[in-house]
Amino acid sequence: MKKLIFALCVALVPATFAIASSGNGGQEVANLTGSFFGILSVLLFVGAYSLVILEEQLHLRKSKPVLMAAGVIWILVAVTFNQMGDTHSAEIAIRHNLLEYAELFLFLLVAMTYINAMDERNVFQALRSWLVTRGFSLRAVFWVTGVLAFMISPIADNLTTALLMGAVAMAVGGNDKKFISLACINIVVAANAGGAFSPFGDITTLMVWQKGVVKFSEFFAIFLPSLVNWIIPAIFMNFAISKNTPQPSKDQYVMKLGAKRIIFLFLCTIVTAVSFHNFLHLPPASGMMLGLGYLGFFSYYLKRKEHKSYDIDDNPLAYQTYHAKPDPFDLFKKIARAEWDTLLFFYGVILCVGGLAQFGYLALVSKALYLDLGPLTANILVGILSAIVDNIPVMFAVLTMLPDMSHGHWLLVTLTAGVGGSLLSIGSAAGVALMGSARGIYTFNAHLKWTPVIAIGYAASIVCHLYVNSALM
Question: How many CA atoms lie within 13 A of 348 on its CB side?
């Protein structure tokens, strides 16, 4: 039966198609949007992404449906091109997508490894402990967590930052559900805004940088619009926060041996990646892998020194620091703790979007958005769309289409794709993660109540960009 269905599908593919140029990196792709396999590919992608959106309800990891969809879509692409007598284009196209994914994968793997290493060394726990023992008022904690989320996310990524600051808000807020909910909303908006003006702050900005569309230093042109995007909603929410001062926590964590040096090595790794891209014209991922070598050699030193410096039986400070007998620092355990579901999800998304591009759908969307509506309207809509659909496939689609627009508009779409996810709690990884950690308190509906205020910040950030960077438009 399966063979019969497959043979029937092949027979339905038209024998010939008109070839049309798309914005897919200058490649020639077929206009197959009306073909049976093309329509089937769209339905597969929509179905897979529907399962991604329902991840929390179905408890099905988001990588699984997109991996399946990616594989099937590329089967359909290959069969379609073979029917046209073209046995090479599909292979060339998928290799191009695989190269893009490989660069993104290696970059993120190193960043995640460093984050995991700092987490294991109690860097984030020590910061949280310092904050919750200061005795700040609830309103002060609201602003401190917001400011830190905005400042940390350009370096550490918005997901890690949101989880860290969310833990602080929950530790301080205790049973005050209203405060925790508002603080989480503020943290999500701040983390997304902070990540928008740095290649390291979000996956979308990383993709834009690696594509070479925007240089590293040029991202800082949207610093002020990003700040406006966060500060306006924060001012409105500030008045709903109580001035009460909760009882300070006595929970204390001390950073483990080598924590500060790992932070320094991470900063060196960032400098290395930027230097590889700017001065050597090499992929940033290769610089990040060199940075993994820094951590590899330091982990060898740390593993040999740790037990000698901290004998838990004889040193009371060791128990306060570790709370248990420490295991030797193992670099490969930190690599194993990477967010593999997320990394495989990116693979599925890139391959799915790349496959749809081969059928000509991205060329069709590019014309409808960037030619018919114009880049300004299109880029604003991209941000709104990223609140509903994850901003990663949206931005990858834009980069695959590669519309002809000014540098100012490329900065605008980087901004809107980065901060547009703040409009809804499901619009960004930071929001989804906090809904999980503050389950039942920070919810979709709780965030939705403040969406109009967040939308004001979104609109204001666009106006700010159009004014501040008018010379680039």
Answer: 22
Q: What is the pLDDT of residues 316-375, one digit of tens each?
A: 555 555 555 556 788 888 899 888 887 888 898 889 988 998 998 878 887 888 888 899
Domains of the chain by residue range: 2-95+347-472, 102-211+222-340
Q: Which of 219, 270, 263 is nearest to 107 (CA)?
A: 270
At 14 the pLDDT is 34
Closest CA to 360 of 102, 93, 103, 9: 93
pLDDT for position 402: 86
Return d(Cα 44, Cα 40) in angstroms, integer. Answer: 6
Longest dimension (CA), the chain: 79
> Residue 295 — φ and ψ, nearest 5°?
-65, -35
Give me the chain's average pLDDT, please. 83
What is the model's pLDDT at position 251? 67
Cα 134 from Cα 152, distance rounded (Å):
19
Written as six digits, the tokens of 391 are 């901003």
| Six-digit token string for 431 | 């929001």
DSSP string, 204-222: HHHHHHHHTSS-GGGGGGG
> What pairing do the DSSP bridges indicate for beta strands 28-30 and 19-21?
antiparallel
Residue 45 to residue 37: CA distance in whole angstroms? 12
- Contact between 427 and 387 under an 8 Å Cβ cutoff? The reply is yes
Residue located via tokens 């001065």: 279
DSSP helix, strand, coil percent of the chain (3-state; round to 5): 75, 0, 25
Give per-residue pLDDT as tens, 213-264: 888 889 999 999 999 999 999 999 999 998 887 776 666 778 888 899 999 9
The helix or strand, by DSSP H or E, that contains position 251, with its residue range, turns out to be none
Dig out the tokens for 139 from the structure: 């309103």
Distances (CA, A) of 437 to 165, 390, 397: 11, 19, 31
**Half-sphere exposure (CA, 13 Å, Cβ side) for 293?**
8
Helix axes 451-468, 223-238, angle to 10 degrees: 150
Question: C-alpha 473: how far from its chain's center?
Answer: 26
Q: Helix 340-358 to helix 89-120 angle, to the nearest 10 degrees?
A: 160
